[in-house]
Design a protein that fits this description.
The complex is a heterodimer of chains A (300) and B (433).
Chain A lengths: L2 H45 L2 E2 L7 E2 L3 H7 L2 H31 L7 H13 L2 H12 L5 H8 L15 H26 L3 H9 L4 H12 L1 H16 L3 H6 L11 H11 L3 H29 L1
Antiparallel strand pairs in A: 1-2
Helix pairs in contact in A: 3-7, 3-10, 4-7, 7-10, 8-9, 10-13, 12-13
Chain B lengths: L1 H22 L13 E8 L6 H12 L3 E8 L4 H11 L5 E4 L5 H6 L7 H7 L10 E2 L2 E2 L2 E5 L2 E6 H7 L10 H14 L6 E4 L5 H10 L14 H12 L6 H6 L4 H6 L3 E7 L1 H12 L7 E5 L15 E3 L2 E6 L5 H15 L1 H8 L12 H5 L8 H8 L2 E3 L8 H16 L5 H17 L2
Parallel strand pairs in B: 1-2, 1-3, 8-9, 11-13
Antiparallel strand pairs in B: 3-12, 4-5, 6-12, 7-9, 7-10
Helix pairs in contact in B: 2-14, 5-13, 8-9, 13-14, 17-18
The chains are: A mainly alpha (300), B alpha/beta (433).
Chain lengths: 300, 433
């Protein structure tokens, strides 16, 4: 009669113990996540509908910020510039990273050295490399334009000092910097493709291009998907490179969304409106990622 | 059931306690009215900005029972960090207003103690005090007031055989001299002038010297003559192109100090920098002086007139969290810093205090400071208008004008189109949003 409740109680205590132990293990990670990510993000959704200059309470303004966003010419400029960057940066980086990975996946002499070299820009301080690229791009004294002039280009572009060329310049540097990182992902992906598939294709008489199309690309599909998603999010959030290289200029020619958020928030102290723009950026990234997942699922 | 609710409670408690721990603001020491007191003072880059220590030590000498502790902030992110510290209740008792642009944020955010009584006690000798007035009260006290002047290299002028500035220059005289210098100095690395990449090098003068011009009006047509001249000098090769200056991160200290330019307009803080760099060898040794900034027209030129220039004061404000007992001491510190004693201490290290007339002798006794009369005139006599007139629109409008500056100076947009665009943006994004 008494043994049943006792056993149940003992089991209950055991469950409690396990739960506590489980939570204890989770806590260090969860605490950091909650304090540094979860709470601020939750608050962001509140501040987006307020006017707030950090001090004191935020004043609830309803949809006023959203209305302002709809008519904000600078927001539109920043959005278009961000799309400009994304549309060129993703395919260029993808192709460059894949090409590098294919090149460095062979048994070449010194392949480790070349892989390191390709990866190097990614681990270099972004401020340092933005400064150096700025000097390379310098219209008057820079070596890039010196070479172009040597090749007979009479009127070489002004790069970061010209509204038409500043975005291409930033895209070039962005691609150069990140291709090493994505090359590494592609290299890892290439290792997972079984060698027999290539042998079988060869036996069937497939040439190099056909082997690439029929074996390598399908084999890399999961990697490619991951790379595209990461590149998309990274491109929409591009910030530090542009801040150091052009600071959004000349004029607003390289103003991107993250920088606009930074400007509104930390320069102009309009944290309410900056939160609204952040949410707009979040929704854009969110929708695009969902679409990518749906497309990927349909293909697989 | 129990398992789930327990987990939920534990999780929620953990989250809440963490949030509370992160957000709670420790109540600072309230101090006591009698006995030794400690004030904390915020500043930046103490290695290159010795003024905070000078003021702290000077105040301690006259008030031995008060110690002023310094708290260093990063110069580039001073306002961001200060805003965060104030919001968290962790900011020092007294903090400097590094840029006038952000004064509105602090004042409107109720982060400053009313110091009107200090202002009244100081009287009208202290320049720039009106910049810190809002709602009929004074919220900060300027201890230094830099004004923009024209630095020139006497050695290069002599070499080129061009007449040095005499205080009668308008901007047209300046442009003509710059071109003449460039031509006559051909073969050396020096050109006529260097115009730094800041928007203030053009816009500060335009705003200060054009009658009736204000940023808040949203009418920026007053900028056109100043940009036309700057572009003309750039295209004539009399100054380094904007794009080359930005992409190569040129510093104005090196451009003038290493004699790559014979003239440069710059704030009076550069007097102290140049004299220090010439002593340490970072800058070349050459004869130099400074003259009043070139003027829009002849009505304000000549040593019998008061030249119009611009410059923002640097003020000290008191954090409202200081507590009543220490507030009087903090006000005494502000009064010391802006008063004649503080001014002398600052002049002794080459800094331009808010009261320049009182320290003329101290300042010009320093080694390496030019001794000519025009430099003395330029140092003491000027009508200095604020670069960032205080208003809730200033920060946002200056951002729009900064975009105009980079677009025009890089040659990406012509001045008329850029002004039209800036005016439209000002209207839709800031003034009537």
């Amino acid at each position: 009669m008494t043994s049943l409740p006792l056993a149940r109680r003992r089991r209950g205590r055991q469950v409690l113990r396990n739960t506590v132990v489980g939570w204890t293990f989770l806590l260090p990670n969860f605490a950091g996540f909650a304090v540094l990510t979860l709470v601020p993000v939750a608050l962001l959704f509140y501040y987006a509908f307020t006017e707030w200059n950090v001090f004191g309470g935020a004043e609830w303004t309803g949809l006023a910020n959203v209305r302002q966003l709809m008519h904000d010419h600078s927001f539109r400029t920043a959005l278009l510039n961000t799309i400009y960057y994304t549309v060129f940066h993703i395919p260029l980086t993808l192709v460059a990273a894949l090409a590098l990975a294919l090149l460095l996946n062979r048994r070449l002499r010194g392949v480790a050295f070349f892989r390191t070299v390709a990866f190097f820009p990614y681990i270099t301080s972004i401020v340092a490399l933005a400064q150096v690229w700025n000097m390379l791009f310098s219209p008057g004294y820079g070596p890039i334009n010196a070479v172009l002039r040597g090749l007979g280009v009479d009127n070489p572009p002004g790069w970061t000092t010209s509204a038409d060329w500043s975005m291409p310049a930033v895209i070039i540097v962005g691609t150069w910097r990140e291709m090493g990182y994505y090359m590494l992902l592609f290299l890892a992906g290439l290792q997972t493709i079984p060698g027999q598939l290539y042998e079988a294709a060869k036996v069937d008489g497939a040439n190099a291009w056909q082997r690439f199309r029929a074996v390598t690309l399908p084999g890399l599909r999961p990697t490619t998907f991951f790379v595209v998603v990461m590149l998309t999010i990274g491109s929409f959030n591009v910030f530090d490179l542009i801040l150091v290289m052009t600071n959004g200029g000349p004029g607003q020619s390289t103003l991107v969304l993250s920088q606009y958020i930074y400007q509104k928030g930390f320069v102009e102290n309009q944290f309410g409106y900056a939160s609204t723009v952040s949410i707009a950026l979040f929704l854009i990234c969110f929708v695009i990622t969902i679409v990518q997942f749906l497309i990927n699922r349909r293909q697989s | 059931m129990m398992k789930r609710s327990f987990a939920a409670v534990l999780g929620a408690t953990a989250a809440i306690s963490l949030v509370l721990a992160g957000c709670s603001s420790g109540d600072d020491d309230k101090g006591s009215a009698s006995g030794p007191q400690t004030l904390t003072l915020a500043g930046w880059s103490f290695a290159t900005t010795p003024e905070f220590k000078t003021l702290a030590d000077g105040f301690h000498a006259t008030h031995p029972d008060v110690t002023v502790e310094l708290k260093e902030y990063d110069a580039a992110n001073y306002d961001t960090q200060m805003v965060a510290d104030l919001a968290a209740g962790k900011a020092p008792d007294i903090y400097a207003q590094k840029t006038l642009k952000n004064f509105y944020t602090y004042q409107n955010g109720k982060q400053l103690v009313d110091v009107s009584d200090v202002a009244t006690a100081l009287g009208d000798k202290v320049g720039g005090i009106s910049s810190y007035q809002a709602d009929g009260k004074t919220w900060a006290i300027p201890y230094r007031q830099d004004s923009w002047v024209l630095f020139y290299n006497k050695t290069l002028f002599a070499k080129a055989g061009v007449k040095i500035p005499d205080g009668s220059w308008t901007w047209d005289d300046y442009a003509a001299a710059s071109k003449e210098l460039t031509t006559k100095l051909k073969g050396s690395k020096a050109v006529g002038d260097y115009e730094h990449t800041w928007q203030s090098t053009v816009q500060g003068f335009a705003l200060a010297q054009t009658q009736g011009a204000t940023i808040e009006s949203g009418d920026f047509s007053y900028l056109k003559p100043y940009y036309t001249r700057a572009l003309d000098l750039q295209n004539a090769g009399a100054q380094v192109k904007f794009g080359d200056a930005t992409t190569n991160s040129l510093t104005y200290q090196a451009q003038f100090g290493k004699q790559s330019a014979a003239m440069m307009t710059m704030g009076s803080w550069y007097i102290a920098t140049l004299r220090k760099q010439q002593a340490s060898g970072e800058a070349d040794k050459f004869e130099w002086g400074f003259a009043p900034a070139p003027q829009l027209d002849k009505s304000t030129t000549g040593t019998s007139a008061t030249p119009v220039t611009f410059g923002d004061p640097t003020g000290l404000g008191i954090n409202p969290k200081i507590g009543k007992s220490k507030e009087a001491t903090a006000k005494a510190f502000l009064q010391y810093a802006a008063g004649p004693d503080g001014a002398k201490a600052l002049a002794g290290i080459g800094i331009t205090p808010a009261d320049t007339e009182a320290v003329k002798d101290t300042f010009f006794q320093l080694d390496g400071v030019p001794q000519d009369d025009l430099s003395k005139f330029a140092f003491t006599k000027h009508d200095t208008k604020p670069e960032n007139p205080v208003s809730k629109y200033t920060a946002a409008l200056q951002n729009i004008l900064s975009d105009l500056h980079t677009a025009v100076m890089s040659g990406s947009k012509d001045i008329d189109a850029a002004i039209t665009e800036a005016q439209n943006r000002a209207k839709t994004e800031v003034l009537n949003k």
